[in-house]
């Protein structure tokens, strides 16, 4: 049995992609199961870049995010070093596996996407963009949906580091601006969320295409297919799906707002950040962490949207 850094025993390969493979492993130090993602040799696996991505993802602590525990490098058969990430092992089936049987009931679709959106809201509050939101990166666990694979996550607004001619992400879920290699923003994740919601509700993509080439051509020439009539689906959910799929990133909803709209539609509880991330302001006085204000902060935000589209906290 292969062991990484004398700690992580690789037990079973559970996933293989173009850039990495994922193993079910055992952490011999903490005696717990984990998932280990090993980058494939020959890929653009800059140790410093992957380490930076791991640090970003490790800052996310949220019930709908699969946590990152550790980072390291291991030797390849050719003697080179390649990075690996150690992550929470989320038990369950991927959303992609569930969708193979066809569309989900609209209530389940909306609940799952509300939880995915809550995870994105947490990431966006930390200035992180996922860049590969899709059914295969969502796992349905007994405790709810978990978003996997922040391995290609990037700081919001960062220039794409991949070589010219390559686009990071899954073609069907890429926002129009990503096709033009514009810097990644939270709005790109919201486009993917719109495709994900559409797929969950209908069992198909909002485009007609049989290949990646046809898909790119269709995306550039035609708008997304309108969401068909679905009995019982609240109109605000259909409108949210439509607005997520607009070409203009500025017209897409924020992840925090979308999470709350979707959750309210099915009377679900989601956990969203109380405040958007910002640089810490200088403090001139020492305040006890157990001040009245801190004690009053609740885990679940109560947020309303006024008529101007601005967020108002209560």
What does this molecule look like?
With 314 residues, the protein is α+β, with helices and mostly antiparallel strands. The chain has 2 domains: 3-88, Phosphorylase Kinase, domain 1 (2-Layer Sandwich); 93-265, Transferase(Phosphotransferase), domain 1, CATH 1.10.510. Helix content is 30%, strand content 20%. The chain is built from 9 helices and 13 strands. The protein has helices at 47-58, 95-99, 106-125, 176-179, 186-202, 212-221, 235-244, 255-265, 292-296, and strands spanning 3-4, 8-16, 20-27, 32-39, 68-75, 81-88, 93-94, 128-129, 138-141, 144-147, 154-155, 303-305, 311-313. The chain has a 6-stranded antiparallel beta sheet, with helices on one face. Strands 7-9-10 form a 3-stranded antiparallel beta sheet. A two-stranded antiparallel ribbon has the order 8-11. Helix 3 runs antiparallel to helix 8 (255-265) and helix 5 (186-202) packs across helix 7 (235-244). The N and C termini lie far apart (54 Å). The model is unreliable at 161-168, 278-288 and 290-314 (pLDDT under 50).
Task: Please specify the SSE layout and strand pairing.
Layout: E1 3-4, E2 8-16, E3 20-27, E4 32-39, H1 47-58, E5 68-75, E6 81-88, E7 93-94, H2 95-99, H3 106-125, E8 128-129, E9 138-141, E10 144-147, E11 154-155, H4 176-179, H5 186-202, H6 212-221, H7 235-244, H8 255-265, H9 292-296, E12 303-305, E13 311-313
Antiparallel strand pairs: 1-2, 2-3, 3-4, 4-6, 5-6, 7-9, 8-11, 9-10, 12-13
Helix pairs in contact: 3-5, 3-8, 5-7
């Amino acid at each position: 049995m292969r062991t990484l850094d004398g700690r992580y025993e690789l037990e079973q390969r559970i996933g293989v992609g173009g850039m990495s493979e994922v193993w079910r492993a055992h952490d011999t130090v903490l005696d717990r199961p984990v998932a280990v993602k090993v980058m494939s040799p020959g890929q653009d696996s800059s140790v410093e870049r992957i380490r930076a991505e791991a640090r970003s993802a490790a800052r996310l602590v949220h019930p709908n995010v699969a946590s990152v525990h550790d980072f390291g490098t291991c030797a390849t058969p050719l003697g080179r070093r390649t990075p690996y990430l150690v992550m929470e092992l989320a038990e369950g089936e991927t959303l992609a596996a569930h969708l193979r049987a066809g569309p989900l009931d609209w209530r389940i679709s909306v609940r799952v996407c509300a939880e995915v959106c809550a995870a994105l809201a947490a990431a966006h509050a930390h200035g992180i963009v996922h860049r590969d939101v899709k059914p295969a990166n969502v796992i349905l666990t007994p405790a709810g949906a978990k978003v996997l694979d922040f391995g290609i996550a990037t700081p919001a607004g960062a220039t794409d580091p991949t070589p010219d001619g390559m686009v990071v992400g899954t073609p069907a879920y890429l926002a129009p601006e990503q096709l033009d290699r514009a810097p990644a923003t939270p709005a790109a994740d919201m486009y993917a969320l719109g495709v994900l919601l559409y797929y969950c509700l209908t069992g198909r993509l909002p485009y007609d295409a049989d290949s990646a080439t046809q898909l790119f051509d269709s995306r550039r020439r035609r708008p997304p297919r309108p969401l068909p009539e679905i009995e019982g689906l609240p109109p605000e959910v259909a409108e949210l799906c439509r607005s997520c799929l607009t070409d203009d990133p500025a017209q897409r909803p924020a992840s925090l707002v979308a999470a709350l709209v979707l959750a309210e539609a099915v009377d679900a509880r989601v956990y969203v950040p109380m405040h958007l991330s910002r640089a810490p302001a200088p403090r001139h006085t020492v305040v006890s962490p157990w001040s009245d204000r801190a004690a009053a902060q609740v885990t679940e935000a109560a947020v309303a949207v006024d008529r101007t589209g601005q967020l108002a906290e209560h």
